[in-house]
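Tokens as discussed.
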């Protein structure tokens, strides 16, 4: 069943009554005029960032710096699945629309949490193998009585907002390729805009506009050029310009070049424009993707890692700014884009702002993409100031007269290994940020981290598999190295002044990968944390005013809304995303027994979360394999290339997928090989039979068994002495 109903008769009765009363709008009766005038309806949250500018500011004041101490849980709703909770809820006229992992959509009574309907797009679980960063979903769009969701397997689905029934379902990608959709659609001008992901696995990025009523494709803009000819798409007009910036040779001709638009899509009503953030190249490593030919512009690889402005009606290219020409570190520019009007040097300027992975804060003119300012959010020392063997920043922290970043050349790891700052997690990732017109500040969840980059000397493009052209986790993952990398992952919520280009205050956090931000007219900033808290700060000073234990990582963008005169603050919580997959050694938990939840708060709320009943993870004695150190080392290299992206660097999981060091399969050679060669593909485990021989699978088992032995020994030492 795609749709389940709780209190279905009541829902139908409500719809029937609405049909008999034409003056009353139906569910999700949202259009462009209503979103443009969102401040006239402060109790609703009708689009991803509340307004088209996506500033994530709530004008509501009932919850304030004076009253936040009385904030309590109003209700919580447990979703059908675990895994990451990344969605920003949408609330229209007392109904909340929110998504969970696997692109499942829920309609809830926003005041009580009562389930109205659930829509499951029934994504085949084997598509999970193409989700580089977990099977997440960042939310829906609503328009004219329908709810729109993009699915992990690349579909765009329109759902009746009142009944949960499917209106149409269109495939937006070539499902024979490893495309995914994790981002929230956007709606304007009767169009639904959607991008896609999958660059690491080998796809070509684009953004599409579909007719909201029919589901027909209206236009498409490809973010990397087609080397074989025009696409009959809006991007054809700039194909030759983009193509000139790509070496005709390189793996990009097989992979498609990447440049996926997997998150940032922002509508600009003043200019009837669409601003998109473009992702990394495919493969990551430019020397593999499109070897540099010398010079600058001819190696830029347009339009990867760029902010691009398009005509929203036609998809026609208007202008762009490229944050990382010829990117080689996965420094995507897909992070949220915010539109605002700022007074700069005494003049009002319509601007687009972004804080992408690379650590800069960018302010662009919305008329022509002119770079107004580019300022580092973290210190970026020149290469000469870095001691040998220590991390180096990819940039000097400066841009040249043409707005191009000035790089530290050895950070490109063209020979050997470079320990580069920031890591591919970025200084700011997908987590939403916010702006308060009261303070003039933007509130950004940032992090600082390092990552080793080494060119993969034996790179061979593998269709549908992880293709970065780099060796990941190449450093030895012994205890000291793991501690060093974990300690390098630090985080904070910062308040940034975009006009004066400086930090106003900082709230240090215990680790990296913390949640999105919400600013309110009550003088507050809300943010969730990776270690399972939801926190309110004074927007002017950064003083912590309130904290709530959510029992799970709280990473998504919070919202605030009002029903019947009561202000609510809502956020989703649940373990998952790429951090818990890949960086388990730095994650705050080894495991989690909870499904994802929606947590909603109000002044005087008295609800409670169910008590935690997490059982300690135990493991039986792992097998001792009679293999050589060379076999274990070979297994480690193979694991780094094929397995670490999902099962964690150094085999240390973050609790999203099973800890393979504790697997009972580890003791049986045949069972292990069966899993590696496709025995659990329907559960999302890839079939590696094409890429790994039986001997290589056995080498990986030997490495994992060695890691399991170390874990078991450490746990035995920690056991209390027997009386």
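Sequence:
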């Amino acid at each position: 069943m795609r749709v389940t109903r709780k209190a279905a008769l009541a829902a139908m009765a409500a719809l029937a009554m609405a049909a008999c009363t034409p003056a009353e709008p139906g569910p999700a009766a949202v259009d462009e005029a209503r979103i443009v005038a969102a401040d006239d309806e402060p109790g609703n949250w009708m689009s991803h960032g509340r307004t088209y500018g996506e500033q994530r500011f709530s004008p509501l004041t009932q919850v304030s710096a004076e009253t936040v101490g009385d904030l309590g849980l109003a209700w919580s709703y447990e979703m059908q699945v675990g895994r990451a909770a990344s969605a920003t809820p949408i609330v229209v006229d007392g109904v909340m629309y929110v998504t969970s992992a696997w692109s499942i959509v829920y309609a809830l009574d926003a005041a009580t949490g009562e389930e109205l309907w659930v829509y499951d797009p029934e994504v085949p679980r084997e598509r999970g193998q193409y989700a580089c960063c977990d099977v997440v979903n960042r939310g829906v769009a609503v328009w004219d009585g329908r709810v729109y969701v993009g699915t992990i397997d690349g579909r765009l689905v329109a759902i009746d907002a009142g009944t949960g029934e499917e209106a149409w379902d269109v495939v937006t990608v070539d499902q024979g390729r490893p495309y995914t959709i994790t981002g929230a659609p956007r709606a304007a001008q009767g169009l639904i805009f959607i991008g896609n992901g999958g660059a690491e696995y080998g796809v070509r990025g684009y953004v599409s506009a579909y007719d909201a009523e029919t589901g027909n494709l209206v236009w498409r803009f490809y973010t990397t050029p087609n080397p074989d000819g025009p696409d009959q798409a809006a991007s054809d007009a700039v194909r030759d310009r983009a193509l000139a910036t790509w070496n005709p040779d390189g793996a990009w001709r097989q992979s498609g070049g990447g440049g996926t638009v997997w998150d940032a899509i922002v509508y600009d009503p003043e200019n009837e424009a669409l601003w998109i953030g473009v992702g990394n190249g495919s493969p990551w490593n430019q020397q593999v993707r499109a070897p540099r030919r010398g010079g600058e512009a001819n190696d830029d690889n347009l339009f990867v890692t760029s902010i691009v402005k398009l005509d929203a009606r036609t998809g026609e290219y208007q202008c762009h700014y490229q944050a990382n020409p010829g990117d080689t570190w996965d420094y995507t520019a897909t992070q949220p884009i915010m539109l605002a009007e700022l007074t700069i040097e005494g003049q009002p300027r319509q601007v687009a702002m972004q804080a992408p992975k690379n650590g800069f804060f960018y302010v662009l003119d919305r008329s022509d993409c002119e770079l107004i300012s580019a300022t580092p959010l973290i210190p970026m020392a020149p290469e000469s100031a870095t001691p040998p063997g220590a991390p180096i920043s990819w940039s000097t922290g400066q841009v040249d007269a043409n707005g191009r970043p000035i790089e530290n050349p050895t950070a490109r790891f063209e020979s050997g290994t470079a320990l580069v700052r920031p890591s591919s997690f970025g200084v700011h990732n997908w987590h939403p940020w916010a702006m308060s017109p009261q303070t003039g500040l933007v509130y950004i969840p940032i992090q600082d981290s390092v990552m080793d980059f080494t060119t993969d000397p034996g790179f061979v493009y593998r269709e549908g598999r992880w293709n970065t052209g780099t060796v990941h986790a190449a450093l030895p993952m012994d205890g000291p190295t793991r501690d060093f990398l974990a300690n390098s992952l630090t985080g904070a919520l910062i308040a940034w002044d975009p006009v004066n280009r400086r930090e106003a205050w900082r709230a240090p956090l215990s680790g990296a990968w913390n949640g999105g931000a919400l600013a309110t007219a009550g003088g507050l900033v809300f943010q969730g944390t990776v270690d399972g808290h939801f926190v309110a700060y004074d927007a002017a000073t950064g003083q912590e005013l309130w904290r709530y234990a959510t029992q799970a990582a709280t990473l998504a963008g919070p919202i605030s809304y009002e029903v019947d005169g009561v202000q609510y603050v809502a956020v989703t919580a649940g373990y998952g995303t790429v951090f818990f997959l890949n960086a388990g050694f730095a994650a705050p938990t080894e495991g989690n027994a909870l499904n994802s939840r929606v947590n909603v708060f109000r002044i005087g709320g008295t609800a409670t979360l169910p008590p935690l009943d997490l059982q300690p993870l135990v493991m039986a004695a792992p097998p001792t394999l009679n293999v050589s150190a060379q076999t274990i080392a070979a297994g480690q290299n193979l694991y780094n290339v094929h397995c670490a992206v999902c099962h964690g660097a150094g085999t240390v999981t973050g609790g999203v997928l099973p800890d393979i060091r504790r697997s009972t399969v580890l003791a049986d050679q045949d069972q292990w090989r069966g899993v590696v060669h496709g025995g659990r593909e329907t559960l999302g485990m890839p079939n590696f039979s094409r890429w790994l021989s039986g001997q290589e699978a056995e080498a990986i088992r030997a490495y994992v068994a060695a890691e399991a032995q170390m874990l078991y020994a450490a746990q035995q030492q920690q056991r209390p002495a027997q009386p």
